[in-house]
Amino acid sequence: MIYDYEKKILQIKIVYYGPAMSGKTTSIKYLFAYFNKEDKVTSIDNTVGRTLFFDFGVLPFKGAEWNLNCLVYTATGQDFYAITRQATLNGVDGIIFVADSRVQCLHHNLRSWNELRSLFGNKAHTIPIIISLNKYDIENLTKISKEGFLNEIDFSSFKKIYINKTIAIKGQGILESFEQLIKFIFPQLTIR
Ligand SMILES: Nc1nc2c(ncn2[C@@H]2O[C@H](COP(=O)(O)OP(=O)(O)OP(=O)(O)O)[C@@H](O)[C@H]2O)c(=O)[nH]1
Ligand SMILES: [Mg+2]
């Protein structure tokens, strides 16, 4: 978090993290489109749209006295670029962990979750985290339930954690997750 007292701007950093192909880029694109800022997302990706390094954009919000700039990133899920994930997490204020809710993806989700935890050490328990069980629209396949995932991660040791089912391709739950994360970071603030 960075305070610019002269310009009265508060800057925070939010990172969408999670295993490859879980829907991080789709989520951030929906979020920016919702705030009419779809042209403000810069993606460093390959020719088939897989994230190479990160996606990045700034969402500005006006407050009565101070303005808020949310720097939003996605980390690449591909392991070939794993080294970039640590850099993307530098100075982060809140995480949206995008999991693939299909039961066969549980192992991948947990591997990514454990990596995130190890990159943070003890700080992992105090940083605000939203878990997004994404791709909940996919039919005919067993899904990971909210309770099921929370039981896998010893969630009671986390201070600010919230879990939500999402469908990023339709934008379902994306705003709710973002708003909940902002609430964790600034309990007094309502964003517009
Ligand atoms: N059915 C369904 N497909 C989704 C959903 N969200 C994302 N997808 C699809 O899943 C694929 C991967 O989505 P991305 O947003 O590129 O995933 P990512 O997490 O950014 O992937 P990496 O950058 O490679 O780590 C794309 O084909 C998306 O259209 C969802 O909620 N439901
Ligand atoms: Mg991506």
What does this entry show, briefly?
By secondary structure, this protein is of the alpha/beta class. It is built from five helices and eight strands, in the order ββαβββαβαβαβα.
Describe the overall structure.
The two termini are 20 Å apart. Strands 1, 2, 3, 4, 5, 6, 7 and 8 form an eight-stranded mixed sheet that branches. The protein contains five helices and eight strands, in the order ββαβββαβαβαβα. The longest helix is centred in the middle third of the chain and has 15 residues, at 106-120. It is an alpha/beta fold and 192 residues long. It has a single domain (2-185), classed as 3-Layer(aba) Sandwich (Rossmann fold), CATH 3.40.50.300. The radius of gyration is 16 Å and the shape is globular. A hairpin with a 5-residue loop joins β4 and β5 (67-75). Residues 20-26, 49-51, 74, 76-78, 134-135, 137-138, 167-169 line the site of guanosine-5'-triphosphate.
Attribute tags:
5 helices; alpha/beta; binds guanosine-5'-triphosphate; eight-stranded mixed β-sheet; globular; binds magnesium ion; single chain; 192 residues; 27% helix; 28% strand; Rossmann fold; 8 strands
